[in-house]
Write a structure and sequence with these properties.
The longest helix has 29 residues. It contains six helices and seven strands, in the order βαβαβαβαβαβαβ. InterPro entries: DHB_DH (IPR003560), NAD(P)-bd_dom_sf (IPR036291), SDR_fam (IPR002347). This is SDR family NAD(P)-dependent oxidoreductase.
Length: 216
């Protein structure tokens, strides 16, 4: 059985990505900051017969990410797929947002993704197999005036993904991103189920570094 870690496994995209890979037979390790979030997600997954466990993890702390990866390896042997889905939203004017707030968001959006990739990549390179998938956002393409931290962070995530892809492709380690260009909402083109399907398609095809999902 293959193993997947979803970092940022909250309601919405995180849950649906967990379901999609779980339905394909993956052992699912869900990581989130609070036990309350994890309990709700794990209950929903297990009700559908999906093998899943929850691990508390603060994506802004490299030590937490290292502990998560080591625990998963001890339990399941190896990590076949890593999904980085963590981010935060803070509304503010770009003229008023504090450097501390931008730094906080950047630590989660970009540095968390970088650290997670750096931690899992060596084993994937050694066995010449694995995948790293990162949730991107349309703010990387068209900045959102009221969300400066997110816009800067998603631009960083997009560039990071392309660099990781180019760095790891010769070792048969796939890296890709789903850029969600719009509001995620049930019953629309940007339904979390469609986001999850896009992630699984990237993983199985391994031909594109980026899939842009739009509301149309």
């Amino acid at each position: 059985m293959k193993t997947i870690i979803i970092i940022g496994a909250g309601p919405g995209n995180g849950t649906e990505i967990s379901k999609r890979f779980g339905q394909e037979g993956f052992q699912v390790v869900c990581a989130a900051r609070t036990q309350e979030t994890l309990a709700a997600v794990i209950t929903e997954l297990k009700e559908q017969g999906i093998e899943a466990v929850g691990v508390e993890c603060d994506a802004s702390r490299r030590a937490d990410l290292e502990s998560l990866v080591e625990w998963t390896k001890e339990q399941y042997g190896q990590i076949d797929v890593l999904v980085y889905n963590a981010s935060i939203l803070h509304q503010a004017s770009v003229l008023e947002v504090s450097a501390e707030q931008i730094t906080k968001e950047f630590e989660i959006d970009v540095l968390g993704a970088l650290h997670a990739a750096q931690i899992v990549a060596p084993d994937m390179i050694a066995r010449k197999d694995g995948a790293i998938l990162i949730t991107g956002g349309g703010a990387a393409l068209h900045p959102i005036k009221s969300l400066p931290g997110l816009s800067i962070g998603k631009a960083g995530v997009r560039q990071l993904t392309h660099m990781l892809h180019d760095t790891l492709k010769d070792d048969n380690v796939y890296v890709g991103t789903v850029t969600i260009a719009g509001e995620v909402k049930r019953g629309t083109a940007l339904d979390p189920k469609n986001v999850a399907a896009a992630f699984y398609t990237l993983y199985t095809n391994r031909t594109e570094v980026e899939k842009v999902l739009t509301a149309e």
